[in-house]
Amino acid sequence: MSVVEQYARAHITTEADAELRDEHAAVPVVLRYDPDTDPRSVRVGLPGTHEWTVSRTLLEQGLRAPAEQGDVRVWPCGRVQAVVELHSEQGVSVVQFESKTLAGFLRRTYQTGQPVAR
User: Fold this and answer.
1) DSSP state of 57
2) In the structure, what pLDDT confidence band is assigned to residue 115 with cuts at 50, 70 and 90?
3) In which band, very low, low, confident or very high, does the pLDDT at 118 lie, cut at 50, 70 and 90?
4) Angle (nearest 5°) at CA 57 between 22 and 59
5) Is residue 15 one of the residues assigned to a domain?
6) Can you give the residue range of the structural domain that contains 18?
């Protein structure tokens, strides 16, 4: 099975780290799915060394309605945005994505393990 990786632009608000604190500028975020390592989760890489593991199911549910699992909350924000809220000992980070970016990435992760049609 192959790894699915996508670079996205997101707006990040955080209490934890000054390098992520510019709420008005979109920053690069890496979405990564490796079915051989963890078929149920996605890694969300924020600038610097910040990386979170998030359930694929939680992301999918959060595109339609508020969803929560442990230290992660996801909810739709208007028609075109989705918010991922990440809680840690260092504080809270709120990452705002375009919904279609997350939906497209998730669609690709589910297609990864399927055999190619002939």
Assistant:
1) H
2) very low
3) very low
4) 15
5) yes
6) 4-112
Q: How far apart are CA 52 and CA 109, in angstroms?
A: 17
* Alpha-carbon 47 to chain mean position: 13
pLDDT value, residue 13: 79
CA-nearest of 66, 26, 72, 60 to 46 is: 26
Would 117 be classed as within a structural domain? no
Size of the chain in residues:
118
What is the pTM assigned to this prediction? 0.82
DSSP readout, 89-117?
A: TTEEEEEEEEHHHHHHHHHHHHHHTSPPP
Q: Are 36 and 1 in contact (CB under 8 A)?
A: yes
CATH no. for residue 29? Answer: 2.30.31.20
